[in-house]
Amino acid sequence: LRVTGEAFGLEVSWDAETKTAYIDGTVDDGCEEVDFSENTGFAFKMNSLMPKNENYMFSPLSIKMALALAANGADGDTQKEITKALDIDDIEEFNAYAKQLIQNYSNNKNVELAIANSLWLNTQKAPDTEFNADYCKKMLDNYNAAVEKVDYSDAVLRVNSWCSENTKGKIPSIIESPDFAAILANAIYFKGDWAEPFNKDATYKQIFTDRNGKKTETDFMHMEETFEFFEDDDVKILKMPYKGGNTSMYFILSGDKRIDINDYTDKMTYEDVVISIPKFKTEYKSTLNSDLYALGI
User: Fold this and answer.
1) C-alpha–C-alpha distance, residues 254 and 240, integer Å
2) Three-state SS for 48?
3) DSSP code of residue 296
4) pLDDT at 54
5) DSSP percent split of the chain into helix, strand, coil, nearest 5
6) Is the dihedral of CA 87, 90, 91, 92 positive or negative?
7) Cα separation of 61 and 47, whole Å?
């Protein structure tokens, strides 16, 4: 307890007379304390836990599906903690939703959204162990999840190859060590063309200022077009659809205020908007243990 607790910045003491361990303090994850008293939705709550001193990106859908794989294999309080954190009222309803979503986008000719799930068992780390057959069937039926067995000799290569293949090489690796008993993995790849494409001739250099005030000269794309838009004293929101109209990107300018997009979608109206957007590439890697703990898992 002392080694683990102090690794997270906690104070651990021992009462020899009562044979009781006391753990005091809170995990310092670099984020301010967040009030989750309102039902604000999983994506918003995850975003509220993201760092404020660096660029980041994450997929709420990817995290939700990976944890749904775990929730389906759990029971009792463990399952309740996971589903509550994910804002899933009924795991079977979410399973049906996941199945329909995967099918819809696998047949979508306008945008490419590939959702891949997999279950990996290390037969050397967990000998004489099998995934429950009913569980595997349910994960295959609802999440199209592949079930694979590996050992120490090929685990890293095969798991990373699976991830690279299902993200078109954008995420070439996700593990470095074969020292695991089981892995439940999700990978998402998205690519889409704008419904209203930018004119390449309207791309030129401008100065971009990041959240820390650093200024960088980079390519900006420009357009004047009619899009759904909302603006008040706190936020500006632009909705730009991809080809086909069923998928969109939202651009949000809200300073340091982190908003729930669901509070604004019904307020957006079609406006003539002058757009200036920098081209960008971002990579982010994080361990979500403390974030999931903050959500109640």
Assistant:
1) 17
2) helix
3) T
4) 82
5) 30, 30, 40
6) negative
7) 13
